[in-house]
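User: Quick sanity check before I run a bigger batch. Here is a single chain. Can you write out its predicted 3D structure?
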Amino acid sequence: MSYSGANNSITRFIRCRMGVNGDGNDTIGIADGHDMIFDHCSVSWGQMKPSRSAATSPTFTIQSTINFTGLQTHSCGGLIQTDGG
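Assistant: Done. Predicted structure follows.
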């Protein structure tokens, strides 16, 4: 799923699974968006990966969400990149 360029969105009660043939893609990719809420989601077998611009937005929220079990060599439950740590 891609939320790249998405604004003013609320995502609730979804389950996303990339699968073993995901070729290193993200289960949920988020780039250049703002004003997003992810609530009560379950993301696995890949990555939920907000970019720096999305993750550092003051209105980006991940709450009550499970993000787990990467299958690929580089994948992890979640990878959140921020400016300044």
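The chain has a mean pLDDT of 76.

User: Great, the batch can go ahead then.
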